[in-house]
Amino acid sequence: MPVVDVDPDELRQLASTERDDEELKRDLFDLGLEFEGETEDGEFQLEFAPDRLDRLSVEGVARSLRYQDGTDRGVYVPKTNDAEWVIEVDESVPDERPYVTGAIVRGLDMSQTKLDSLIQLQEKLHATMGRQRVKGAIGIHDLTMLKGSAERSSADRSSGQGPRDNAAREGAGKAISYRGITPDADTFVALDSDAELTPGEVLTDHPTGEQYADIVEEYERYPAIYDDIGLFSFPPVINGRRTEVDDESRDLFIELTGTDQWTIDKMCTILCYALDARGGRVEEVRVEYPEGHPSEQRDLLRPDLDVDEKTVTHARVEQLLGVELDESDVVDYLERAGLDAEPLERDGEPAYRVGIPPYRVDVLNPVDVVDDVGRAHGFNELSPRYPDVSTVGGRHETARLESAARDALVGSGFEDMLDFHMTSERDCFDRMGLDIPDELAPDAPLGQRPPVTIAEPYSEDYTVVRTWALPSLLTVLENNTHRAYPQNLAEIGLAAHVDEREETKAAERRTVAAVLARTDAGYEDAKARLQALAGAFGKALETPATTHPSFIEGRTAAVELDGERVGVVGEVHPRVLVEHDLELPVAAFEFDLSALE
């Protein structure tokens, strides 16, 4: 989870509070912010839950403290000035990064402290919502250094690059352009540089360009933002030096580009709220998309400061929190959580229409509203009690079985592992010598089952749910070649495959996998460990000869427990070892955990 540095004195000033450090730590903990230590300058290092991204700055934390104290109540929406600037999106904009948003903030009394806070918020948003700038990236510029088009020709307007309704856009005539260019089409001076570089040269000759080159280097056209003077931003990589913000800047232009409109709009809103808390005046920016753009709307006014609404019943609040509350108390708690609350009736029962401020990205359904009520009431004020049921909770039998199997494996000399359930088709099948089946075959080798695939994977390394655990253990061995041998590793974990007979169309199971890696590892070693494990659970083990593409023929057997075939044991095939850069023998086994019941 993200950790943010917060100056306690600055926090006290913005929150209008005189709490001492210990009181601050206590009340911040009640808000879900954990104190992780202090910097050399005495700043608090606070760990944040990933849902409350509006608290990634001292301004956001101070806002939450004011609501906690009751100093502020209900939803606050900054007043905005009408748009004077337009972001025109050209048809050449890269298909991989088509969306843009922005805002202008004027009248800031900037200082180095405020600038540092803004930069920290920018980078924390990049790391969280922005997915390291891949999904969304922020550019902040000194507005006074920009020159927008004062007039756009009738040809521009008719071509879809200008306003579609000029009467409704009077005054919004200062335009900048978001477009796509070839890597060597233009030059600019990037931040922390004195040289004129093309975008392509930035990716190879500038430290920041090298760091983020992998985001755009495969694009046919690179994202670029222009004013009347020329190129001033190369998102998501780096801004131009001409528009650099410093502690003398008073008016800012904020632009964000990305792969998703909602994400960059919310990132922009969080920034605007932070700058509003510093005394800035937010001004709208108009975004104009061309014909054929994937955006649902061609014209947008940003920042998006619309207040969302949710409805939650009083009975639902009491049910989830386990306490009885007056309606007036619920309204009070909601307002102290920064929400609006209007009592109403739904199906004859008391309920609340709840207004959600635009900077809240975590309120997805009424349960999230109830969570805010609980925090305002104080979770520490809730008295624990046994549930009104006839049984008391305990560990599931499957969990008990898994724990016992882990103990037995550790007792046999294995190191217990916990690996990712997500993997790639290459690791799960190709490098193990397996084909990827289209359908489930009853006599298929262990692991060769149709995988559960991810429709839109975030990374090519995690495209499927693993069908067996042995590839995960071999990957660990591959990453541990610098460590001493022997290495005996075991894992009990999830595996899954497509099965149309299941209600979810996917069959899940717990699997037991183990590897022994050393210079003399062989079939007998793996079978001996397997025999000890079966004996610990009173199971009769038989190992008839079999074949498996991942194992050496003649050194491989099926695992049968009490007469049921449940897995495989043997020596890993040299072809598989080479794929994993392993230079010594590996013996292994894998079977279904349920066979030990």
From TrEMBL:
Q: Matching PROSITE patterns, A to Z?
A: B5
Q: Which UniProt keywords apply?
A: Aminoacyl-tRNA synthetase, ATP-binding, Cytoplasm, Ligase, Magnesium, Metal-binding, Nucleotide-binding, Protein biosynthesis
- Kindly state a single biological-process term from the GO annotations of this entry: phenylalanyl-tRNA aminoacylation
Q: Which CDD domains match?
A: PheRS_beta_core
- Top-tier EC class: ligase
Superkingdom to which the source organism belongs: Archaea
Q: Provide the binding site for Mg(2+).
A: 362, 368, 371-372
Give a yes or no for keyword Zinc in this entry: no
Tell me the GO molecular function terms: ATP binding; magnesium ion binding; phenylalanine-tRNA ligase activity; RNA binding
- UniProt domain B5: residue ranges: 305-384
EC number(s): the record gives 6.1.1.20
Q: Main localisation, per the record?
A: cytoplasm
Positions of region (Disordered): 149-175
**Assigned GO CC terms:** phenylalanine-tRNA ligase complex
- Record's catalysed reaction(s): tRNA(Phe) + L-phenylalanine + ATP = L-phenylalanyl-tRNA(Phe) + AMP + diphosphate + H(+)
Q: Write down the required cofactor(s).
A: Mg(2+)
What is its subcellular localisation? Answer: Cytoplasm
Pfam families in the record, alphabetically?
B5, tRNA_synthFbeta
Entry-linked SMART domains = B3_4, B5
> Which SUPFAM superfamilies does this one have?
Class II aaRS and biotin synthetases (SSF55681), Putative DNA-binding domain (SSF46955)
InterPro entries given for it?
aa-tRNA-synth_II/BPL/LPL, B3/B4_tRNA-bd, DNA-bd_dom_put_sf, Phe-tRNA-ligase_IIc_bsu, Phe-tRNA-synth_IIc_bsu_arc_euk, Phe-tRNA_synthase-like_B3/B4, Phe_tRNA_ligase_beta2_arc, PheRS_beta_core
Quote the PANTHER family the UniProt record gives: PHENYLALANINE--TRNA LIGASE BETA SUBUNIT (PTHR10947:SF0), PHENYLALANYL-TRNA SYNTHETASE BETA CHAIN AND LEUCINE-RICH REPEAT-CONTAINING PROTEIN 47 (PTHR10947)
Oligomeric form and interacting partners: Tetramer of two alpha and two beta subunits.
Protein family per UniProt: Belongs to the phenylalanyl-tRNA synthetase beta subunit family. Type 2 subfamily.
Protein name as catalogued: Phenylalanine--tRNA ligase beta subunit
Organism field:
Halomarina oriensis
